[in-house]
Amino acid sequence: MNSLTDITHDPALRSWVTSANAPDADFPVQNLPLGRFRPKAAAGAEHHPWRVGVAIGDQVLDLRLAHAQCPWPDEIYPLLGLLAQDELTAFLALGRPSWRRLRLALSMALAEHSEQAPFLDLCLHAQADVEMGLPLTPRDYTDFYAGIHHAVTVGKLMRPDNPLLPNYKWVPIGYHGRASSVGLGGGVRRPRGQVKSSADAPPIYAPCRRLDYELELGLWVGVGNDLGHPVSMASAEDHLYGVSLLNDWSARDMQAWEYQPLGPFLAKSFATSVSPWLVSLDALAPFRRPAQRPEGDPEPLPYLDSDFNRAFGAVDITLEVWLQTARMREGGLPAVRLSQSNALDAYWTPAQLLAHHTSNGCNLATGDLLGTGTLSGPAPAQGGSLLELSQGGKQPFTLAGSDESRSFLEDGDTVTLRAYCQAPGAMRIGLGQVSGTVLPSF
Ligand code: MN
User: Fold this and answer.
1) How far is the CA of 216 from the centre of ligand 1 (A)?
2) Predicted confidence (pLDDT) at residue 384 exceeds the cutoff of 90
3) What would the 3-class secondary structure string for 345-402 be?
4) For residue 379, how far is its CA from the centre of ligand 1 (angstroms)?
5) 0.85 cut: is pTM over it?
6) Among 1-5, 179-183, 289-293, 327-331, where is mean pLDDT lowest?
7) 143 Cα to the center of ligand 1, angstroms
8) What pLDDT shows up at residue 402?
9) Does the N-terminal or the C-terminal CB of the chain have fewer CB atoms within 10 Å?
10) Known catalytic residues?
11) Distance from the alpha carbon of residue 374 to the mean position of ligand 1, in angstroms
12) What structural domains does the chain harbor?
């Protein structure tokens, strides 16, 4: 625990929703992530409308019902009233004081001995009985390259003598991604594009042969900024609502051919998958850590530096990639873990990415999505993409407990990203997961 935490982070706090008290629960009462859901419809029946909900244990609290059917402190009604309209945008635009006020009210309402429990008990849905939607429809999506171990490993594959370009430690590298193909995973269609069978061969238009995932965090903008008004480091986190997992699906063969000189384009824009629950920065307070750089690295320029960032800018989040092949699924075998890494290995913090994005005057809007870039650990086995784990496809590796091997993804492979936070004196919280299964090309 640290100076950012309050009573909502108390590890002794338990919920009357008993599944939230399990030691390995992703959504204990200390987490309280927001998302959009609807009850699963019976086959052939009409879909139920989307609702905004809070994840608690293995349940979802329906905030439209909670607003209508439960007594709340007076100042909470306007906040819940916005969420009862089944959209997150207006609430996220309110800013951190409102986010914190609702978090405190939800914490008290869902904690043991709450007088609201009998009312809210009637507003719960089992997560198993609902389907999740995108929390917001991002208007804009930017992907960064903040994972320095990823940048070094990938750089070595392309430039053995000069893996890290000279700008890397000065300027957060990014490119403008495609918002229209951001989704929750499910089926992900193998793209087609210009691929080459060898360096000297002319390209052909064909299904991607080197399909990959990238393990990233998604940062969701809460409060936007006006065009021409950069956000300072001092207020950068006031603009950031929270995080989810993000899989930046990548077609490496298409990427290698198209990326020079303007960066990724069709190799990335066919799909990006995010996890459905928005975990607020407030929930991550016990897991904040100093932003640290190795001795001898340049100090960040003043517009990318702040006392807060030095003390608390980084986030300790354990990140994992799991793979289940079609054969494993058919044989009843569980997914195998491909890698584990940590968001502390990012070279740039969330605040630095947001401040840098606006530093030229660019405007961000509520619901804009920023990807951190692939978050790989320092060891070769901690690569957050197959490009790293198979060394550019040169070294296929065997999947644990199986006779199958991989260098890139095969049709039928299901990639699942998971993340959780653990720290002494804090309750473990999780981000949940995002899964996508590769479908054959069109
Ligand atoms: Mn990426």
Assistant:
1) 7
2) yes
3) HECCCHHHHHHHHHCCCCCCCCCCEEECCCCCCCCHHHCCCHHHHCCCCCCCEECCCC
4) 19
5) yes
6) 1-5
7) 6
8) 87
9) C
10) 150
11) 6
12) 7-133 (2.30.30.230), 141-439 (3.90.850.10)
